Amino acid sequence: MPASCTRICLTSALARLEEPEIQAIGQTEIGFLDTVAYDYDYAGPALDPAEGERLAGVIGADKKVLFMANHGVLVCGTTVAEAYDLLYYLERACQVQLYAMWTGRKLRQVKPEVVTHTLQQYGQVWPRYASKPTWQHHFDALKRILDRREPHYAD
Predict the structure, then answer these.
(1) CA 73, CA 37: separation in Å to the nearest integer?
(2) pLDDT (tens digit, 9 = 90+) per residue, 87-133?
(3) Rounded to two decimals, what is the model's pTM?
(4) Domains in the chain, start-ordered, CATH in brackets?
C-alpha cells in the first residue's frame, strides 16, 4: 500500500473526543484558535440539504475550519491551495496535541497574553513571496513532487 494511503487522520480523531477543542499549547495550535468552529451535535450523514444548511450556519462566514462531532473536519479556503495548506497545518496541530494528550500528563497552556499577541500576529497580512501567498508556494511544491513521483495522475 502506498504511503499516501496509510495516513492517519488525526483531525478526525480529535473531532471524536468529548472535548475536541484545539488547545493553546503551541504556536501552530494558537494559529487555529480564531479559525475553527465546532459542531457538537452529530445528526447522522448530511444527506438532507437542511443538515448542510445547519452546518453552514455553524461555520459561519468568519471561520475556515469546522470540527464536526463524531465525524471529522471541513476546511474552506479561497483556493484549493489555501484549503490544503490549512488542512496540512491543522493535521500537524492535532497530531502534536494528541501526542501530548497520550502522555496522560497535564498540557502546558500558553499564557493568555502570549496567545493574544500571537493571534494578532497571525491576523496580520501573511507574507507574499514573488507575488504569491505562502500557501500557494507550498501547494506548487507538492504538485512538483507529485509530477516527479506519480506523473500519471495528470492523465
Answers:
(1) 10
(2) 999 999 999 999 999 999 999 999 999 999 999 888 766 666 777 88
(3) 0.83
(4) 3-126 (3.40.225.10)
